[in-house]
Amino acid sequence: MPGKLKVKIVAGRHLPVMDRASDLTDAFVEVKFGNTTFKTDVYLKSLNPQWNSEWFKFEVDDEDLQDEPLQITVLDHDTYSANDAIGKVYIDIDPLLYSEAATVISGWFPIYDTIHGIRGEINVIVKVDLFNDLNRFRQSSCGVKFFCTTSIPKCYRAVIIHGFVEELVVNEDPEYQWIDRIRTPRASNEARQRLISLMSGELQRKIGLKVLEMRGNAVVGYLQCFDLEGESGLVVRAIGTACTLDKLSSPAAFLPACNSPCKEMKEIPFNEDPNPNTHSSGPSTPLKNQTYSFSPSKSYSRQSSSSDTDLSLTPKTGMGSGSAGKEGGPFKALLRQQTQSALEQREFPFFTLTAFPPGFLVHVGGVVSARSVKLLDRIHNPAFVGIMGNTRSYKLLDWNSFNADEPETRDAWWAEIRQEIKSHAKALGCHAVVGYSESTSICEEVCILSASGTAAVLNPRFLQDGTVEGCLEQRLEENLPVGCGFCHIPYDELNMPFPAHLTYCYNCRKQKVPDVLFTTIDLPTDATVIGKGCLIQARLCRLKKKAQAEANATAISNLLPFMEYEVHTQLMNKLKLKGMNALFGLRIQITVGENMLMGLASATGVYLAALPTPGGIQIAGKTPNDSSYEQHISHMQKKINDTIAKNKELYEINPPETSEEVIGSPIPEPRQRSRLLRSQSESSDEVIELDLSHGKKDAFVLEIDDTDAMEDVHSLLTDVPPPSGFYSCNTEIMPGINNWTSEIQMFTSVRVIRLSSLNLTNQALNKNFNDLCENLLKSLYFKLRSMIPCCLCHVNFTVSLPEDELIQVTVTAVAITFDKNQALQTTKTHIEKSLQRASTDNEELLQFPLELCSDSLPSHPFPPAKEHLESASSNSGIPAAQRATSVDYSSFADRCSSWIELIKLKAQTIRRGSIKTTVTVEKASPMGEGNFRNRSAPPCANSTVGVVKMTPLSFIPGAKITKYLGIINMFFIRETTSLREEGGVSGFLHAFIAEVFAMVRAHVAALGGNAVVSYIMKQCVFMENPNKNQAQCLINVSGDAVVFVRESDLEVASTQQAAATCQPLCTGGEVTT
Amino acid sequence: MTSELDIFVGNTTLIDEDVYRLWLDGYSVSDAVALRVRSGILEQTGATAAVLQSDTMDHYRTFHMLERLLHAPPKLLHQLIFQIPPSRQALLIERYYAFDEAFVREVLGKKLSKGTKKDLDDISTKTGITLKSCRRQFDNFKRVFKVVEEMRGSLVDNIQQHFLLSDRLSRDYAAIVFFANNRFETGKKKLQYLSFGDFAFCAELMIQNWTLGAVDSQVDDMDVDLDKEFLQDLKELKVLVADKDLLDLHKSVVCTALRGKLSVFSEMEANFKNLSRGLVNVAAKLIHNKDVRDLFVDLVEKFVEPCRSDHWPLSDVRLFLNQYSASVHSLDGFRHQALWDRYMGTLRGCLLRLYHD
User: Fold this and answer.
1) Contact criterion met (CB < 8 Å) for A754 and B4
2) Which residues does UniProt assign to the signal peptide (chain B) (predicted)?
């Protein structure tokens, strides 16, 4: 349906000299949209032409408006020969299609050429007149807002969170078309850039349609990626979370939130809210009431129908008799039913969000992930069992048939993986997956598809159009244990899907929590954390033989589970070494290369107050008789203990001491524990599904039986902490720091190392890789030293293996300064507060000693666990009889067998390894608000016009985002045939990345914005051929263009309001100013 | 394990002032790293030499990319590639255009041509400034010269506008351009005691009073070229020494006024005619280009050195020069009062500045 696109070319500046004779240029501009082209006059002999053209008008369908980019080409007029292109500007006009976003695009855009880079700038004005479209069967989805931000955008509130949307489109890669042999590199690059731009537009439109179908109006956490599959094509795929968002009109409504740098709570966390109805009944959007029925029979049937594995969830109604909290049990069941009903209708109950409105997240189960190795096979190739099902034969397809044929295969691949994730989540007793993401790694014709997320139980309040209102909701919230809403395990403790060590929540003492918790989401704002967090990375390389096709795929599939296991072990060790008990923002990347596999896991470790104190790491030698060896071992042990102590001090982890006494000090764990795990997994022969949870152990035993293990221990100790004044994390905010000042510095750093091809062993490889990452971090700390005290947030490492002996690591992060004095003050109050709390906790403890004693008992309901129970009993000295009360041995066996069945079932999907780990998140205690600061950043005096901030975070410290202008999604190719002249590979890439930043900033500025939030560099593919003096690089970036206002500017108006709104939050009186 | 590629790109371009200085000073990356190590930075930050190497490389690369823009500073302000806060931009430009005293003294008044550029090797050896740095400084001089050479309006303003330099640095460049254009000799041995500041001071006075711009602000090259007419007219001053009566009268007026006020009165009295002849002859000769070039040599030879050999204190020189120029007004036979003031006003300022050890 119709729309009118209007474009005016105003002027150019700093154009390159195109005519050597006159040192000037005769420039003119071609403006192209779809198949229509307009031209400006030639502006003779100037490097700063003033075209001041008429308005070029394009009358187009809004479908085209969404798909097509506006293409502006600047050329040099030549009377005698063909006109020379100076460069191009692609403008995505999508932001002009939403009513609330930008109304005009106007500004200076860098003129970009894929061979020469930026060559001058052009001033353009673009407007769109959109006619109202009443056609119901339209193909366009204008008006659906897209956000890269993985939380509810700041100036909106979520009315409903609908759920997962995904789409992919496939095309032939122009680089591999036959025509590429006869066209210039420039033409080929431009064809590719244009195609990807078109495909992105189409993808976004299609996703928009799905959102409209779901009756949503926005996509949050939109992540679009492209896979360069080489000869088999080019895939652009996207996932996101459909939502219905309501614009917050009154700034006062979220003023308190913008003061706090964290995931802005647009609403007051409902725990503290004396009247939870105020905000849910507020919106003008008509909300339908949905009634829920709670008959137990229904709950049964639902459960059986919902689980496609044989794992049967224990009827929740029977839980009351167990040791689970009396109020919690039935409530949990109730909640589960509702959530289930809400989620069940969905194919994939996934959410790409990593931060949620308060109260959304009820329980967190643990990380679920799935990987699958596929063959991108263009030669006719019958499907072969187990590894892949791609039977597509290659032919020279025209666009349409290609397009029609292809996505189905890819769709099927992803559907398979998602199904797996879903069933993993179910096994964890969860109905939803949050913090969900997908990725690929491609090398030649082998492709690893990965998906991961965090299994969770959600509050149905935000799901579906049935926003629960009235008494029901009120009841729900009253029932929620204050501050512990989601620290309890979502699965039945008697029927755990994997062995874990459960204790009573250290916060409320009523419900069970696991001993460690891994998640892919951000730390919930209201979680109580002790001390500060830190970046934890596990790094791993595995050599692999070079092989072709199937053999290669098989080799990779065989290696994957081991890598997953080792990565997980490393993470666990490092976490313990830091004295912490939870990981947030976990992202495991497995990269495949010609002759190796790389695994890199990054996460932010924290100490959650609700979880037990982690035990130490115990080293055990293999040959106990050798005295010198033992000496060595004890030396190592000492070193490890020292490191743990040092780290605790460094990250200010001083949990209330009472809790230590309660659990008993870390007890060296009998070695058989880990054996048990192993034997268990060996028992079912095909098991690939590894049990990676090391739960149940107070002290973690590292067995040093060979040099490898020795290496591992050494590498544990080689990780140097950041220099003082620096902190780092890969989540949005640093746990334990909350007084950001306004200085931010986003950066991208890329390193490529060449391995010496000789003596490549796994160990050498690991060391090289480890050094690479560590050195990179060290360099970052050094470079940013002027910002101390500061924190590197959202540290995002990406590994790729561009060639045989090359490892490329790309890091994007943002450094944010904070106020040290404030920090000290905070920790002080924090500690005081926790001490206070600890003492009250202690009293509680004394009242319920029995409950506490029994906490380790029912945690391991599998045969191997019995041995442990015995050992545990001997250690803790609890009479066995007491335990027996809570363990029903008859049902025990049943559950065990179902557990094994589950394992077998999983094992059939041989092509991936998966991780499941237990997780709990603590819900807000009053202390959560101790972090809340009613303080605005110092005024930033020199905010000059034209500065565009970029950050991978969803917020800007010390500022309030007032408007979202639309999504920025850009793809660039840069190529050179004079690599040496451009300063070698470093010079080339440095310039290109700087140019990409410049183009992003220019587009944001033209939209009227002054920042990009949730910025991400999704791809940075670099290829070089130094012998030919050539290099090529592809970069794909995205983010949300926004307008922000410094808080200092708002201050006057907001002070009173903020003070008023804050009051309910500041009950604890922890506000430091 | 060798690093093939190693880059860091910030949304705000990071500028390390210390590394920038090393780069401007023309040190190679390895020399710069060595110097930084010596500065104790490793101990302060706990970094390793490898980190320092990578950091230095990175900064050098950035500076190299920025250099193209620094050649036309307004471009640096308008370009979109590097986001640099205005204060940092100013710092980059100011430092880039800053020069070494030792270097400028070597080049001041020389033609900014290829020939001179070839001598940079020698200058580098002589001054101990790296050849790279010499080249940068020389190219800066030449670039500024080329841009403002034929421009209308105030020289200082033009420089400030086209190179965005501070007032202080713009004035220095004005002096350099003025000296280069008029090719004043500054390299003679007897001029070695003079600093760049001395010359710059003189240049400013001369630009203000002796150029076309001093009378008419709407001419090309107004601040760069000396007012030819004025130089022509200066011949008329010769009468002050050629006419013996006038000279005697001038001397007696000066001596009467200064009697008892100078510590070196007798020396002054004895030398008056020589000094006056020297000053007036300098004026009369300025019509010839060659003599313009030798202006400073002449001033030092004819005035500064005789006074210095008699140990005149600076205060006496000032008293003398004031009286010397003022008393011309009471000479009835002398008709070129305005011309004399235009000449002597500037010369007095210059001489006072030039008079030191």
Assistant:
1) yes
2) none
Residue B143 CA to residue A1006 CA, distance in Å, equals 34
**Interface contact A983-B64, CB threshold 8 A:** yes
For A59, half-sphere exposure in the C-beta direction (CA atoms, 13 angstrom radius) is: 2
- Contact in structure between A430 and A456 (CB atoms under 8 Å): yes
Give the A window 584-613 contacts with B, CB below 8 Å: none
**Contact present, A18 and A42 (Cβ < 8 Å):** no
How far apart are the C-alpha atoms of B292 and A646, rounded to whole Å?
76
Mean pLDDT by 10 residues, chain A (1073 residues): 85 89 89 92 91 91 82 89 89 80 85 93 90 57 84 85 88 76 84 89 89 88 88 87 81 39 37 35 33 30 31 32 37 52 68 84 86 70 32 34 55 89 86 90 88 86 50 42 60 64 75 84 83 89 84 88 88 87 91 90 88 77 67 80 83 64 39 32 34 44 60 69 86 82 91 80 85 90 89 92 88 89 48 42 36 36 40 39 36 39 37 36 35 35 63 90 90 91 91 95 92 92 87 93 83 48 39 36
Reduced to 3 states, what is the DSSP secondary structure of residue A227?
strand
Minimum distance, in Å, between the CA of residue B184 and any CA atom of chain A: 34
One-letter amino acid identity for A311? L
The answer to whether the Cβ–Cβ distance between A780 and B8 falls below 8 Å is yes
Residue of B nearest to A724 (CA): B45
Among A746, A771, A985, whose Cβ lies nearest the Cβ of B5? Answer: A985
| Alpha-carbon distance values, A459 to A161, A341, A464, A505, A783 (Å) | 11, 12, 11, 20, 44
Residue of A784, A991, A1001 with shortest CB distance to B80? A1001
For B337, phi and psi rounded to 5 degrees?
-60, -50
* pLDDT in the model for residue B218: 62
d(CA A407, CA A413): 10
Span B87-107, pLDDT tens digits:
999 999 999 999 999 999 998
CB contact under 8 A, A986 and B79: no
Rounded CA separation A591/B290 (Å)? 76
User: pTM above 0.90?
Assistant: no
Contact B96, B70 (CB under 8 A): yes
| B75 contacts on A by Cβ (under 8 Å) | 14
Chain A nearest-CA residue for B15: A783
Minimal C-alpha gap between A745 and chain B (Å): 6
Report the distance separating Cα A587 and Cα A581, nearest Å. Answer: 17
What phi, psi does A483 have (nearest 5°)? 80, -10
Q: Which residue of A has its CA nearest to B66?
A: A991
Q: Is A718 on the interface with B (CB under 8 A)?
A: no
Tell if the CB–CB gap between A985 and B86 is shorter than 8 Å: no
pLDDT at A280 (0 to 100): 33
Burial class (CB in 10 A: 0-12, 13-18, 19+), A46: middle
Write the DSSP string, A370-436. EEEEEE---S----BTTTB---PPP----HHHHHHHHHHHHHHHHHHHHHHHHHHHHHTT-SEEEEE
Quick check: A562 and A540 in contact, CB under 8 A? Answer: no
**CB neighbours of residue A187 within 10 Å:** 15
Report the gap between the CA of A753 and the closest CA in chain B (Å): 4
Contact B83 A806 (CB under 8 A): no
- What is the model's pLDDT at position A611? 82
Q: DSSP assignment of A296-365, as one string?
A: HHHHHHHHHHH--SSPPPPPGGGGGGSSS-TTHHHHHHHHHHHHHHHHHTSS--B---SS--TTSEEEEE
DSSP one-letter code for A68: P
Best mutation target, A121, A759, A784, A990, to test chain B (most B CBs within 10 A): A990
